[in-house]
Design a protein that fits this description.
By secondary structure, the protein is α/β, with parallel strands linked by helices. Helix content is 31%, strand content 17%. The strands form two sheets. It has a six-stranded mixed beta sheet with strand order 1-8-7-4-5-6, with helices on one face. Helix 4 links the parallel strand 5 and strand 6. 37% of the residues are buried.
Length: 201
């Protein structure tokens, strides 16, 4: 890796709430391409790209754990046997604000089709838990959110470099699908959940 490339990766990691990125892509729609554009929009976000991972492509189970904004302990390990939908968000992220009504609708649709599916927000930091809690309550977010503690995002195996990002974990707790950026269609993400839910546990 050249010195310029190392510097770019370091700058991106700092911009993404101090979270190390899983490599630097040359894709024009990637997060580092947005950083190079110099448009000064104040945040970096994905373009809504959907990634599906076959069982053979999936890594080890996610070891995410922490405390929700309401003070309750939670861990991904305790959700084994259930499909889990994780959404990385923050109230300072405009695409996160824009997608929240769709996430609320997605939650209702998925829970109707799969009553045992689990939803969990993951707070991306850079604001107080009080602000995040007020945002969630004000927009009637129907599922809990893990408070940012410096380790929560690191547990997502580099698959959530910036908010908003939505991940679908299979019944073994492995990342099976990802939407990098705001979701634009509840149906698309519900299809991802449906596919993962059909897999053998």
């Amino acid at each position: 890796m050249t010195q310029v490339r190392r510097m770019l990766c370091a700058a991106l990691a700092a911009a993404a709430v101090g979270i190390p990125l899983a490599g630097c892509s040359d894709d024009a729609g990637s997060i580092n391409a947005q950083a190079r554009s110099g448009d000064q929009k104040g945040y970096l976000s994905g373009d809504g790209t959907i990634e599906r991972l076959t069982a053979a492509q999936r890594k080890e189970p996610v070891t995410l754990r922490g405390t929700t904004l309401d003070g309750k302990p939670w861990s991904a390990e305790q959700q084994r046997g259930h499909v889990v939908v994780l959404n990385l968000w923050a109230s300072w992220c405009p695409p996160c604000v824009e997608e929240q009504p769709r996430l609320n609708a997605l939650y209702a649709a998925v829970r109707k089709a799969h009553p045992d599916a689990v939803f969990m927000g993951v707070h991306a930091g850079r604001e107080s838990s009080d602000n995040a809690r007020d945002f969630a309550r004000g927009r009637q977010v129907p599922y809990p959110t893990l408070a940012f503690d410096g380790q929560t995002v690191l547990a997502l195996q580099g698959k959530a470099p910036s908010p908003p990002t939505t991940l679908v974990l299979d019944k073994q707790g492995r990342i099976a699908a990802r939407v990098l950026g705001a979701i634009t269609s509840e149906r698309t993400v519900q299809d991802l959940v449906d596919d993962v839910a059909k897999e053998a546990g």
